[in-house]
Amino acid sequence: MQIKPAATERPRHSLWLAISTAVAAFIAGCAAPLPPAAPPKPQAAVVNPAPVKIDPVIIPGDPGSLSYAKTARDYRKDAAAHLYGANAKRIYKGRMPPLLYAVGVLQVDLDPRGMVQKLNWMRAPTHAPEVVAEIERTVRQAAPYPVAVNLGHVTYTDTWLWHKSGNFQLDTLTEGQDGVVATKPTTDKETKAVVKAVAKPTKPGKPTAVVKK
CATH says 63-209 is which class? Predict the structure, then answer.
């Protein structure tokens, strides 16, 4: 006599079959290759902060850029030579006429690098404002001046002798004036002496006479 399996054994067999299939699928999934890793994100470029602006230390390139003057009075010779070199085509040649279009006494303040800090007119040719403006432009444009090695900061004074043609001479290096008697100050108070020696113009625009020291 053949015995038939109980009806409850078939669902149990199906359950084990489902579990075995799920386990096999899980193992197969674990064995599958992993997807490629994402490429690293590019890093933002590092921006260096703007450098702090520092005034450069001027190292003169030729001996004429240095002045070994020990006084402001001596330094003005180097300053005048520097201005002459920067304005060679504007220097009046020879002795100047007895009457000049304008005469001005200007004080120039220079820092230890030879740069113009300020200008101070001790006697301005007010009758010729265009000359005042041109002299100031010329002085500033000529910077830097010779570095005063022994003085550092220096303030010097010079007298500008201005011809009607627009050419000029500086009192420090002038070749003199026709019909003018030269005098020489005996003290360091040269500025006051020069100012007193300059005759004031009688009318605006008239030439000015100056006594050469």
Answer: alpha beta
